[in-house]
Amino acid sequence: MAPLVLEGISHTYAQQPALHNVTVAFPGNKVTAVLGKSGSGKSTLLQVLNGMIRPAQGKVFFLNLPFDYAAADALRLRMGYVIQGVGLFPHLTVERNILLGTRLQNLSAQQPEARMDSLMTKMNLPLAYKQKYPFELSGGEQQRVGICRALLHNPPVLLMDEPLGALDAITREDIQHEILQLQKTEQRTIIIITHSPQEAAALADYILVLDEGRVLQFDTKENVLQRPVNTLVQRLTSTQAS
Ligand SMILES: Nc1ncnc2c1ncn2[C@@H]1O[C@H](COP(=O)(O)OP(=O)(O)OP(=O)(O)O)[C@@H](O)[C@H]1O
């Protein structure tokens, strides 16, 4: 079974419908890019996946079990979460930011310092940066630190909400490359929201296209790009358009 499954998910905020009868099984150890216009429900979908939002209808399965909302904090430790703007603590060094989860949760990641060093190296962050503060780093470097923090405990799932949206094209490409290299050595199920068809084309194995809270198309990248089900999917996935 796929590690993350949504079954008949519908969710409405107050009067505002956000997801409608969404059923998706996210393929294990593959990258799925989620595309859709602003307001199509992408962020809501990600928050349903990590249990931040308990949907009005439908079921979420994580690692073959129904999502246990009473144990949501513990389950989320098995899902890395990376957002645009990173959310690093400004008063903590890079090292303390990356190791923060270990301290807060009182977890003993296996040799967390060694894991941190290895991740920083894979994300092209000099180890000397461990003693720096976030304001001393570029946006791309901060985003890399956020990715290291999310991956410290080697979670089987990584959820990313427009992680590279604010970066220049070259830095985006570099970080995309680092993510793909990591995916070769330590495979995991990655779900990444992006507004960029280029990013989806570069990173994804599968593409999920949402519109007004509904799934328009979910298929391999090749099928979505070569056989879009309608003109909206074609426009959202066209690398000419952006
Ligand atoms: N906390 C909230 N309260 C009320 N309505 C919300 C809330 N969060 C999102 N919505 C609404 O739900 C719908 C889906 O929003 P969502 O943020 O999931 O879309 P999105 O595709 O991620 O958008 P964007 O690309 O702009 O980030 C939108 O109509 C939005 O206005």
From TrEMBL:
GO terms for molecular function: ATP binding. The keyword Nucleotide-binding applies. This is ATP-binding cassette domain-containing protein. Gene3D superfamilies: P-loop containing nucleotide triphosphate hydrolases. It comes from the Bacteria. Residues 4-237 form the ABC transporter domain. PANTHER family: SPERMIDINE/PUTRESCINE IMPORT ATP-BINDING PROTEIN POTA (PTHR42781), SPERMIDINE_PUTRESCINE IMPORT ATP-BINDING PROTEIN POTA (PTHR42781:SF4). SMART domains: AAA. Pfam families: ABC_tran (PF00005). It comes from Chryseolinea lacunae. Keywords: ATP-binding, Nucleotide-binding, Transport. The lineage of its organism: Bacteria, Pseudomonadati, Bacteroidota, Cytophagia, Cytophagales. The keyword ATP-binding applies.
